[in-house]
Every structure is written in structure tokens, then in C-alpha cells.
Write a structure and sequence with these properties.
It holds the Pfam family Ank_2. By secondary structure, the protein is an all-alpha fold. It contains 15 helices and no strands.
Amino acid sequence: MDDNPNISPVKYAIYGIRNMKIGFNIRTLSEVEDAGATALHLAAAKGFTNVARLLIMVGANCEHIDQQGRTPIFYACLGGQAHTLSVMVTELNCKITHTDKLGRTALHCAAFGGYIACIEVLIMKADFLIHKEDLDQFTPIHIACERGKYDCVKYLLKCGAAVNALARIDDCTPLSCAQANGHQQIVNYLLRNGGLFPYQLRNLAALIIQKWWRQHLRSRQLNNQKPKKRKINKKESIKMIQSNITRLWSEIKN
């Protein structure tokens, strides 16, 4: 590695630990530096837990962001470094709720790579992240379906991810994401577990509203009351469907 006056000795040390070879594909150390990454970002990405611990102990900032708005926690998730991530979260108290410039959390990044062990660490600390939407309204399960991470999709559903989370900006559900990218194994799995396409979800929402209105009218008629007009919140109807799709579908068929 050629000397570069713009790169700190600490970063050189990280890349030299245990005669490690650089594993950032075509990225050079200078490019990582230009992206705004610190020594802690690099240690997290490569799984150098003791180095990360030492850097934080001597004052490295866990909340420093690179040019994409990502903290070292993101780098640990993108690198699949579950042990380092666990130490940073549980022992060193690094925050995991930060969002980058795309509105994504560290859990989105872990889902991107299909790193189940990293997802497990994050969910144990903050299970609400499983429902967090990015700027495109994609949740982590959308990302996993888009990327074809079958085992990751199964794990996210097991942990309570919404099988029919609707990203209204791109009008897609996890099922449509998987189909659009040719991941048939995931498509089949989602179909077996109540997955719907966006048009099916919208149709079901309309049926739910119609069923509710008929029941409302019937109740008013039995009580000799004039029905009052009431605005139906379609967004809340869709959320209700997402939370218990099997039961609602059974109600509609009956």
C-alpha cells in the first residue's frame, strides 16, 4: 500500500492488522476516506471487534456519519459482522436507530445482505425497526425480497414483519418485489403465508370497507336510526388488513 498523506496512521494500522488484505472489492483506502468513513467505520466493516472497542474507548464517535449518512453500525451490518455489531450495541452503547440519507436503518442494510445474525442483534435491541420504512416506504422485508434473500425473508416473517406491507410510492408489496426480480422461491413462500399483490390488497381493503358499511347500515336499521355519514380511512383499513390478513380474508369469504 502506497503512503498517502491524506490517510491517518490509525487507518493504515487497521488495514495492516494480522496482515489483512483489503476486502472492499475495487475500493481503495483513499476512496473509503473520500466517502467520509472513519477508522471506526472500517474496523466495524471488517469485524475487528477489539480495534473498534479500543477506538471507542479512546474517543471515537459512534455517531459519526459518512457521506451517505451511515454510522459505523451500518458498516458492521453491511459487512455481516454480527459479533462486532453485538459488542458495539450491547457493550459500547452505540445507537441503532439512526437513518441514512435514504431513510434506511441498519436493519435495512442487514436485510440487504441477508445477514440474519445481524438482524437478530438489532431486533433484540429494537424490534420496532422491523416495521421501519425508508423514504420509498420500503421496510426491511421489501429489501430482502428484492435482493432474493430467502432465509432472511423467512426470519423476518418469523419475527413479525408484515407480509403485505405496502410501499405506496412504488406500489409494491414484498410479494411483488420478489416476483419483479425473479425470486420464485420467495414468491412461493410468501404465497403460502398470505402474501398478496398490491391490486389484491387494494381490492381486499375495498371489500372490508363495504362489509363494514353493510353491517353499519344493518345495525342502524335494527335500531330505527338514520345512518350517519362517516369518512372511512383507507390507510387505516390497509394497516388493519396487514395485521391480520388470514382472519380478514376468512370474514370476506363468509
